[in-house]
Write a structure and sequence with these properties.
By secondary structure, the chain is of the alpha+beta class. The protein folds into 4 domains: about 180 residues, no CATH class; about 200 residues, no CATH class; about 210 residues, no CATH class; about 180 residues, no CATH class. Helix content is about 50%, strand content about 15%. The strands form 2 sheets. Strands 1, 2, 3, 4, 5, 6, 7, 8, 9, 10 and 11 form an 11-stranded mixed sheet that branches. It is elongated and about 105 Å long.
Length: about 775
């Protein structure tokens, strides 16, 4: 044992190759641990934020129009499940909704987290939500001109104000996804001075904000109490746990992206480092014959190699953990970064301990077999017959009549060699192929995500615009009468979107009443519903209720006293989110005739107020929609397709492919560099023979350059199609899980650029080894060899 330790200490002191391997492994391990720390931090950020800011459990909406009933505040506050209740005053205004929270709102419920600035105090000072500030590029000191809707007592009044932004805030319920990326996010909080100045002059609605004693566990009993207070009539509320779950899902997608990044980096790092360790083991085996002559056994040689591997693993683990701590301020990512309560450096002990242990274990494990093989008794370097029969590569290059530098470079790139000149080029090629495939697959996945976000049909917008009323008196029939006769409008359908449930699974419904032409959802499987007894469900909803196309389900409307009815599932559809509690993949599409089966006798739901429209083929879309909006006037709002916010949040991590590509590129570059340097060192005799036969220094450099070029071309030729296939397959699985249409795309420009970029990088890396080879003097080399 003492001989092993003495030799190990000598190697670790005099050789620097092991340190280079340790740093490569540390880079990969640190990146994996950083991604893991970021994923855990991202995934938990909103839950910690909601608890700290005392987010509401349920919000009861005011009476927006006929048919909607709001229970009295005092009666709601006395329900036994209520811990705290407050009122939020909504001062109806454009382009931002002005709100004032009456205590305890803002203190014991829905506390504001100031991201910058302060809370409003003086007249016409506001704190705006962070999503509104991002979208409208609002900053501290900005002025927002606002038009207020007049109160019923003074209908002729026209009140305008210039609101000065003194704070940017975030609070529970204001995180995306939000319905139409507007209501709930485009808010401006005012102080008592502004509210007192405007009270009674502008149209004001009152929401009831409730925090329950047992949180989500009290919601069923509380909702039953609300139905009793309003006598079973329609009332609207938002269950924050559902909205918070939707926010958490969108943030979870960002965390999943980090887990995927960490997993891919781990696989690539393992592949690259294992090949580097195997190569190092065979390089070190050159001295095994001398050590055997001094009396070391094969077991001792193997133990020596494992001590070396353990030292490399320990250094990689320590440096990787330090890198993860140093890089922790870069996380969380996306929306979770806004919710994070404790930004800055974090030490995730579980990740660091497990990551360091895994690093040491894997480095030792992947070294065991190569080291054992390298300890086998080597046959003579120039045994008889070793050089008699040229390799397939040599015969092919000779038959093709390639220039000498090209032929020599190709042979050095693809021939493993024999004896003391052996270089594990195949394992190196495999590592670089894996790196190229991972990079190309990530680029394909990112391009498919961009394609989804840019194609409304893929996430359920199977029409051109949505029209809704801004008044209590407008309805869908008025919209149809106003624009139905326009020849540029090809299809119209009135829609109603009540909240539905199957068992305990709640989701948004989409009831379609055809008014002109035919408008149907995007169907993934089966067909669209045609009668009052049929339904098409979203992918996620089908999964949650354990149903399938052809099954029967019992559906009820949750906003009124329940009257379940049985429907046959005839299709799996893509349903665009209709509210801030909905998400892509959930929902149901039904014919409007089915709604009457779900409404109890004596209950009168509000009239339909929304319409979906599709333009006729060949019309100027932008101009036509602008004309229709102008024709409809201010009483109606025309909305063009808007991307689901959870996908937008996932798109916020679009830089991850670039980060992944950079790290994979570094690992691939390290592999190429190590291969070229090892090749030149192990094949010094071959290069010396080439110089003796007449190769100039420039030709030797050219041969090394062709070696690097061949290496890169071969890796890209194999890795590129594998990466494209892997990226498309991964995207198809992801899109199907989301409930969107799967249309994977391949970025042609990025793939075309990959080929020359790989060749250029390989030649830049090979410049230094080529210069070293070109300056080599053949006589000393041949004497020592």
């Amino acid at each position: 044992m003492s001989a092993i330790l003495v030799r190990a200490r000598s190697e670790l002191r005099t050789r620097r190759a092991w340190l280079g391997l340790a740093l490569v492994a540390a880079l990969g391990a640190g990146a994996v641990m950083t991604a893991s720390v970021g994923a855990r931090r991202t995934d938990s950020a909103y839950g910690r934020f909601d608890r700290a800011q005392r987010g509401a459990d349920i919000v009861i909406f005011p009476e927006f129009g006929p048919g909607i009933v709001a229970p009295p505040f005092e009666q709601v506050r006395r329900l036994p499940q209520v811990a705290t209740a407050g009122r939020m005053h909504l001062l109806v205004s454009e382009p931002v909704l002005v709100v004032f929270g009456e205590a305890p709102v803002g203190t014991r419920i829905d506390r504001l987290k100031l991201l910058s600035g302060r809370l409003p105090r003086a007249l016409y000072e506001v704190a705006v939500g962070f999503t509104f500030a991002e979208r409208r590029r609002v900053h501290l000191g900005s002025r927002i001109p606002v038009r207020f809707a007049p109160s019923p007592d003074s209908p002729d009044a026209r009140i305008r104000a210039s609101l000065r932004v003194v704070g940017i805030e975030a609070s529970p319920g204001e995180f995306p996804p939000q319905f139409e990326a507007g209501v709930g996010t485009d808010v401006a909080h005012v102080g008592p001075a502004t509210f007192s100045a405007l009270r009674g002059k502008v149209l004001t609605l009152k929401e009831t904000v409730v925090r329950l004693r047992r949180g989500a566990a009290d919601i069923p009993a509380f909702v039953t109490g609300l139905h009793r207070l309003v006598g079973g009539q329609p009332e609207l509320n938002s269950i924050r746990s559902q909205q918070a779950a939707n926010v958490q899902r969108s943030i979870h997608l960002q965390a999943v992206a980090l887990w995927l990044l960490g997993g891919l980096l781990g696989l690539v790092t393992l592949g690259v480092v294992s090949q580097l360790l195997a190569r190092q083991a065979f390089v070190e085996a050159a001295e095994h014959s001398t050590l055997r002559a001094l009396g070391m056994t094969r077991g001792q040689l193997w133990a020596l190699g494992m001590v070396r591997a353990g030292a490399i693993g320990l250094v990689a683990a320590g440096a990787g953990a330090a890198l993860a701590v140093f890089a922790s301020p870069l996380t969380p990512i996306g929306t979770a970064r806004v919710a994070e309560l404790d930004p800055g450096v974090t030490v995730d002990a579980w990740v660091l301990i497990l990551g360091a242990a895994a690093t040491v274990t894997l480095v030792v494990a992947v070294s065991a077999w190569p080291v054992w093989r390298a300890t086998a008794a080597a046959r003579p370097a120039l045994a008889p017959g070793d050089e008699v029969r040229p390799s397939v590569v040599a015969r092919t290059s000779a038959a093709a009549g390639l220039p000498p530098t090209l032929s020599a470079g190709v042979r050095m790139a693809l021939e493993p060699g024999r004896g003391r000149t052996a270089v594990p080029v195949r394992s190196s090629l495999l590592a670089v192929i894996v790196a190229v495939a991972a990079l190309v697959g990530t680029l394909s996945f990112g391009a498919s995500l961009d394609h989804l976000l840019g194609t409304p049909r893929l996430y359920g917008w199977n029409w051109d615009a949505h029209v809704t009323t801004n008044t209590d008196t407008g309805d869908a029939d008025a919209i149809v009468r106003s624009i139905g006769g326009d020849a540029r409008v090809g299809d119209l359908a009135a829609v109603d979107t009540p909240p539905l449930a199957i068992g305990r699974t709640e989701f948004d419904g989409l009831f379609l009443r055809q008014a002109k032409g035919s408008i149907h959802p995007v169907v993934l499987e089966g067909r669209a519903p045609r009668g009052p007894n049929e339904v098409a469900l979203g992918t996620e909803t089908l999964r949650q209720v354990h149903a399938h196309v052809g099954a029967r389900v019992r559906i009820r409307i949750t906003a009124i006293a329940p009257k379940p009815a049985t429907f046959r599932v005839v299709g799996r559809a893509v349903v665009r989110p209709q509210s801030d509690t909905a998400r892509l993949g959930s929902g149901a599409v039904l014919d409007y005739a089915a709604e009457s089966r779900l409404v109890p006798p004596g209950v009168h739901p509000p009239p339909i107020s929304d319409v979906e429209l599709r333009l006729a083929p060949g019309v100027d879309r932008a101009r036509t929609l602008a004309d229709l909006a102008k024709h409809l006037g201010s009483d109606y709002q025309l909305t063009t397709p808007r991307r689901p916010a959870d996908l937008v949040n996932f798109g916020r991590v679009q830089n991850l492919p670039l980060i992944f590509g950079a790290i994979v590129g570094l690992l691939g570059a390290a592999t190429v560099a190590q291969t070229l340097i090892t090749s030149i060192r192990r094949r010094r005799r071959d290069l010396a023979v080439l110089k003796t036969l007449g190769f100039s220094a420039a030709q030797v450099r050219g041969a090394v350059a062709w070696q690097a070029t061949t290496f890169a071309v071969f890796a890209v030729a194999v890795g590129l199609p594998l990466g494209v296939a892997a990226g498309r397959l991964a995207w198809s699985g992801f899109a199907n899980h989301l409930g969107a249409v799967s249309e994977p795309v391949t970025p042609p420009l990025a793939l075309i650029v990959t080929v020359p970029a790989a060749i250029l990088v390989a030649n830049l890396i090979g410049a230094v080894p080529a210069a070293i080879a070109g300056r080599m003097h053949p006589a000393p080399v041949l004497r020592t060899e």
